[in-house]
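Lecture 7 notes: from sequence to structure.

We start with a single chain of 122 residues. Read the sequence below before looking at the structure.
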Amino acid sequence: MFIEVDSNPNCESSLFARFKEAGPARKVVQVRSFERRAEGEWCWVTGWSDDPAQPCCPAYGQMVEDSGAGLTNLIFGGIWGVRLKPVSLLEDWSLESTNQWGEPYLSLADSRDIKYADEEQR
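Now the structure, written as tokens:
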């Protein structure tokens, strides 16, 4: 599989990467992020596209082989990457929010740090 993310207002980094699939892609709704807190925090995640009228698109998780990490859970979204916000935050998705941030993709070692749309919410 190939992941391509253009440099954009959601995340400055552009990316073109190839991964070997090791499982099916599934829609993701939440991830535990360690970006802002060492103990981690649960965040909503969405894919982000270049469509100004409808930038949100699905985010997916897929087990892949990564040459540097062995097996990892790849979280990916639209051509502009993925966007995250804490689950405690009650605001719409927005590039202007300082409480939200974008990434080209996420690589999560622990599948317990992912909540899929097809699972019952715990």
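The chain has one domain: 2-116. Keep this in mind for problem set 3.
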